[in-house]
Each structure stands twice: as C-alpha cells, then as structure tokens.
Amino acid sequence: MCNNVEQASCLFYKYKVKFAINIRIIKTSLYTLPMATQLREAKSSTGLVITWEALPDDYQLEDEPVESTGHPLVAGALRESLEIYGLILAQMLIASNFALCANVNGQPVVKAPDWLYVPSVNEILSDRKSYTPNLEGDVPAIVMEFLSDKDGEEYSVKRTHPPGKWFFYEQILQVPIYVIFDQDGGLLEFYRLENGHYELKQPDENGRHWIDSLNLFLGTWQGTKEQRTGYWLRWWDADGNLLLWAVERVELENQRAEQERLRAEQESQRAEQERLRAEQESQRAEQEHLRAEQERQQKERLIAYLLSQGIDPNNLPPE
User: Fold this and answer.
1) Number of domains in the chain
2) Within this chain, do residues 136 and 260 fall inside the same structural domain, yes or no?
C-alpha cells in the first residue's frame, strides 16, 4: 500500500513540474449558437481553447464494460446512504460511470468517472446521457476514480487529444476534489485543487476527509455488503456518525425491535412474578385466616363442653 502511495506521489510531482498549466477563464461574448448548445469559451495560457458545448445528438458514447464488478457496488453504496438520509436534493446530480463533457480545441472530450457529484444543475431531467459543466450547471464538486489494472489513466496528465483523466479534471474542468480509491488495497487518495493543481491531503485522526459541499466526512470502511467483502468508501456526518446503508438500518431496526421484545418479555415476566408473589401472599393470608378460624371454633367447642359439665370456663381452678 505504501509503495502505491509513493508511486502515485512520484508520478504526480514528476508531471506537475513538466505540465504546470494555469488555465484562466476569459469571459467572451456568446457565439451565435443557442445557450443550450454552447455557453462560452476559455483559452489557457498554453493555447487550449475550451468551450462548453452539448454533445451532438449523433455522438456515440463509448460503451466499455465495467473494469470490476466491485466498481458499481462501491459507487452505488455511496449514493445509497446519501439517499436514505435525505441528502440528495432534486437539483443535484450524482452519477457513476457517467459522461462528463467539454470541447477542447474544437474536439469533444468525454470522461466517465466512477462517481461524481454536481451540487446544482440548471434543469432537472429524469434521464441524462451526459453532462457539460458550466453549460448545464455547476462544475462537479467531486469526481472519483476507482483504480483498475489498466495503464494508470487515473493519474494521466496527457494534454494532447484525448487528454488524460488527471489533466481533464484538474486543468479543463477544474474539479475541486479528486478522489482515487483502490478498492482492493483500501488506499484512499484525496486531492484538493489548490492554485490550479491537485494537492494530496492527509486524513484526520480518524482516517477521514471533510467535504464542505456535502457537510460530510469521506473515509474507508472494511466489511461485507451484497456478498462483497472488502474495502468500501463511506460517509460520516459532522458528529462522526456513520451513514448507514439500507440493510444496516434494517438490521439496526431489527436489533431495536428484538431488544424491545426482550424488554417487554422481561417486563411481562416481572409482572407474572409480581402476580405470583401477590397470589402467594393472598394464600398465606387465607391460610392465616383459616388457622385463626379453626382456633376460634376449637375454643368455642371447649367452652361449650365445659359448660355442659357445669364448669364455668371463666372460673377455672388454677393448675
């Protein structure tokens, strides 16, 4: 795991020096195309011309198979807990393996991060096939890539067409937070965009990273979900409480119901014990009453016998 961190850091700083690019957005007048088609143009100091254009209707998105069966599970789990706790608003866009678009030097560039979060979109659509930042809404606040066994595309700073993912997120889209996660080894690399470049950030004492845009912590967790045992990305609230998945909430509710059942059962047992104790006390009182009644009857019979013998029971001779 440490070797992975060192290699990633070496790649990062090697390419950072070589390709230190500071893209400054220059506001220009709109082109004659409609607002829904093209928003504005930006030109970098290295000559890149970036426009925010919707993909042509006939553009064919790549339909590559997922690189790991675990990728959609990890991505889905991230969304699930947010949805359960009511943290996904209508204007948000949260998606996985979803096309992010820009036009660089007249050529469309499309990347599909494993998970992304956009705080606000201009138009709420029930179905999207792609998303162009600035044109359709906010720039993604977070993009995540889950490591694969391919060629390290997650770290690629290649600027020629098609640009690498790192370069695309950092220099073209300028996404504030870039997360690279190794689901096999559990390594979470958390990068923040600072002064135009991604800087690797260390987690807090709990191994988590605070994300202002979501008001949540992001960290790793090891366990089992959907028959997959391994490392997962999880959310924690500001108080350090884990945001549970649906199955965990069901288990928790079942545990609470079982505890309540046991508590009610114990209360019932205590009530039964109290009833038995009261019944025993009543029986003892009844026995005491019967004993007193028997003694009274015996005394009355004795008095009657003495009187029949002409003896005054109140003036019995001393023994």
Assistant:
1) 2
2) no
Residue type, position 155, single letter: Y
pLDDT of residue 38: 61
Residue 46 in tokens: 């290295």
CB-based burial, 116-145: b 16+ in 10 Å, e otherwise = bbbbebeeeeeeeebbbbbbbbbbbbbbbb
pLDDT for the residue 195:
96
User: What pLDDT is recorded for position 220?
Assistant: 98
Same domain, 159 and 250: no
Which structure tokens are listed for 174?
């300028």
Q: What is the pTM of this model?
A: 0.73
Q: Tell me, what amino acid is at 4?
A: N
Q: CA-to-CA distance for 203 and 16, rounded, in angstroms?
A: 22
Question: From residue 243, how far is each of 44, 198, 250 by CA, in Å?
Answer: 41, 28, 13
Query: What letter does residue 114 receive in the DSSP assignment?
Result: S
Separation between Cα atoms, residue 191 and residue 193, nearest integer Å: 7
CA 84 distance to own-chain centroid: 9
Determine the pLDDT at residue 134: 97
Domain containing 203 equals: 2-243
Q: How far apart are the C-alpha atoms of 194 and 103, rounded to whole Å?
A: 24
Instruction: Give Cβ neighbours of residue 264 (< 8 Å, ≥ 6 apart).
Output: none
What was the pLDDT predicted at 124? Answer: 95
271 shares a domain with 208: no
Residue 29's pLDDT is what? 29
DSSP structure class, residue 249 = H
Residue ranges in the chain whose pLDDT is less than 70: 1-47, 63-67, 150, 319
For residue 171, what are its two tokens? 């220099």
